[in-house]
Amino acid sequence: MQTKYKWILLVTSALALAAFGYYFYEKKRVKEIDSRVDSLEAAIKRLQEAKNN
Amino acid sequence: MIIINYSPLVFSKTKQFIENYGAGIAKAIAGTGLFFPAMVAQSALESGYGEHIPKNSNNFGGIKYAPNLEGVIGYVIADSVEIIGNKATPVKFSRFVDVEAGFKAHIRVLLNERYKKARLDATTPEEQILMIAKAGYTLTPAKEYLRRMQSIINAARDYSELGRIS
User: Fold this and answer.
1) A chain contacts of residue B157, beta-carbon cutoff 8 Å
2) Are the C-beta atoms of B12 and B128 separated by less than 8 Å?
3) Are B23 and B99 spatial neighbours (Cβ–Cβ below 8 Å)?
4) Contact B25/A at CB under 8 A
5) What does the domain layout of chain A look like in residue ranges?
6) pLDDT at position B1, please?
7) B144/B94 Cα distance (integer angstroms)
8) Spatial contact of A45 and B22, defined as CB atoms under 8 Å apart
9) Pairs of CB atoms within 8 A across A/B
10) What is the pLDDT of residue A49?
11) Confidence of residue A1 (pLDDT cuts 50, 70, 90)
12) What angle do CA B152, B99, B5 make, to 5 degrees?
């Protein structure tokens, strides 16, 4: 295989791997947030922190 | 569900909406089983990110003046009119004491038995919105109803990192 095509294959594979990684990271992160049950005090504190950041 | 994202404009408007009303919404939905991002998205969509809420009224649902309703401390007169006996009459909307009271009145319908399954059994804000729609909250098809608020749910989730509130 020509070197040019090897590079294309390598870069495409790396991008696909990164996309998969991102997808599963996002899936896990969203699941964690959705399953969270905060007390009202903790929720208000979190909103205040988000505002300050 | 996950990769569908949001534009910077949606994030900015959602952020502003949460900064203005988030604490009151959180207080109103505490212990109900309703997801914070779902309620933010629904109310932001229905109120045009708060722009259609009559000024100083804390009235999220376009609730007409009802002096006996909990939290109502008066009324505001909006720009809109209603026709009563061929006469254009300004509409009085309930003015609530604070965001929490106004939002409690807004979600009162969701506390009915009909929406109990949606409140308690949904595992994600998206699922809750679908279940609420399917239970009869809107005539809009459930998937379309969710599609309209998906980006706001995503933005609200990312900004607040809140799920349910006990």
Assistant:
1) 30, 33-34
2) no
3) yes
4) no
5) 3-52
6) 47
7) 30
8) no
9) 63
10) 96
11) low
12) 5
Integer Cα distance of B69 and B106 in angstroms = 11
Least CB–CB distance from B161: residue in A27, A39, A46: A46
A33:B162 CB<8 A: yes
Which residues does chain A have within 8 Å of residue B163's beta carbon, measured at their own beta carbons? 33-38
Q: Is B36 on the interface with A (CB under 8 A)?
A: yes
Model-level pTM? 0.90
Q: What is the pLDDT of residue B147?
A: 97
Listed residue (B123, B141, B140, B134) closest to B38, CA to CA: B123
10-residue stretch averages of pLDDT, chain B, 166 residues long: 76 98 98 98 96 92 91 89 81 94 96 97 98 96 97 97 98
B128: its two tokens = 């809750």
Domains of chain B (ranges, CATH numbers): 8-160 (1.10.530.10)
